[in-house]
Amino acid sequence: MPSRVAVVIPAYNAADSLAQAVESVAASAHHAEAAGLDLRTEIVVVDDGSADATPEVLAALAARFAPAGPIRFKAVRQENRGAGPARNAGVRASSAPLVCFLDADDEYLPPHLHACVTALEADRDIGFVWTRRRLDVPIHPSWGPSLDRSTVMNLCVRRIWHEMIEGFPEHPDFRKMTCEDSFYRTVLGNLVLGREIAEETVLIHFQPGNSLDRQREKLATPIAEWDGTRETATPSPAILALFENRLAAVARLKAEWRGE
Predict the structure, then answer these.
(1) pTM of the full predicted structure?
(2) Which CATH number is 3-257 given?
């Protein structure tokens, strides 16, 4: 049987970069097929209430992919709610047992899907894998492992575990804090075993005003020398409570599985 993976892309006012992101997913799927993997790829773009030409770009992309081909494209539109709720909506709109994520201003490098899918299919005991990321501006190398372990653009997860942790948090405070990726990765890692793939397979672009752009000074400083007291944003009580509740729920699940 063919392998099946869904790639979920949240898009907010992403008309200038969305096509490039989607084409990078298609190129990665073609690379996997050329490498001998019988792959069926769902690309699900969630338009998170865009006010620019994103809907027109989505219409053009939908015409690019044949409905019955190995790469299937689907667009979902919702009111503007943020990246976490958009990703959850995209997962719900997909059906593949493996799920990847990509932001609309970033790209997959060709090996991404082949590396992730083959790793998960080779070891049923792991629930997710992550790869290394390549950034288009220099950062101090000591930050690389930390960034790779705290974001989701380089992640591929089994759908069952995404559902077990109730997906991404949707509390509105995450729109100000923008820490839903690290929240998701932490909760997921507390529930199920993951594994790193030591290969750069995702290209992350710095964009004016995005979270990486706001951390330029921090990421240029060796991690051991960064003064954490200079961080300006702290999680709200609602975020901390939600985090504690999710971790407690994960602990209960694991205890039930062990028969405790």
Answers:
(1) 0.94
(2) 3.90.550.10
